[in-house]
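Below is how a single chain appears once it has passed through the pipeline. First comes the sequence as given, then the structure the pipeline wrote out for it. We keep one example in the README because the format questions we get most often are answered faster by looking than by reading.
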Amino acid sequence: MGILTLPWEGPPFTVLEAMMCEKPLLLHRCVGNEDLVIENQNGFLFDKVDEAVAALHDLLKAPEEKIAHMGKESRRLCEQHFNARQMAELYLKAYEGNFE
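Resulting structure:
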């Protein structure tokens, strides 16, 4: 499982690595992280500590099949939206001043 509690970072490479390793995510709700999680499909976002604890508790009690499915969904989303070619193109646009 990938857990990130930082109040801001986006998109963090450690989370992308966890996604490629087919891990469900539990991330602090902030810019960047919100682009990486589809609630209940590949993980959960939280605003407060008690929300994170509840989500973690639910994940730990979840059947292995659900965890595996969420992990596969993480990888699918990462490959589809955050592959190296797309990321390089975004960085190039940013450096050229054409970031959208």
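The two ends are 31 Å apart (CA to CA).

See the next section for the split statistics.
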